Amino acid sequence: MNIPDPKTFTDPEKLRKLMANAVRLGYDDLAFGCQLRIAELAGAEHEAGVERAFWTSLVAAEEFRTAENGRATKLIKVRAKHKKFGAVRVLSEQVMTPDLSDGFDKLVAHGRGDLTGEAIVVGHEDEFSIDAVNAARKKLMDHGVAMTATVAA
Question: Taking Cα atoms as reference points, which of 72, 103, 102, 74 lies closest to residue 90?
């Protein structure tokens, strides 16, 4: 069976169709790959650096929620906060809370800890306060995420 590579797709709607078929046929890794590619495409629309990483992570979390809920789900509060304050402040506040970022467990389980909000903060530490970076590092270490994987973010 010839299974398409989601990384070759540039149309989110075609990726959603491929993802639906992957779910129906039990190809969970392919479905995850489609979700990540949709997130990467959304992130690519933004300036490189923290903004791009933030949007990639946010859209990935929304795709995970959509799959769980069975209907399109947007993280409205996070989007509104971003619009008002920007990615650096949203991520800083997120890592300073005891909760993990949206999608953290799923990203880590699939070897993509580099896309978590915590990893974004560590990967762009020069743009965040030392307290935010230390909080992010602690969360990553507490959950067994390799620090070397996050530096490439």
Answer: 102
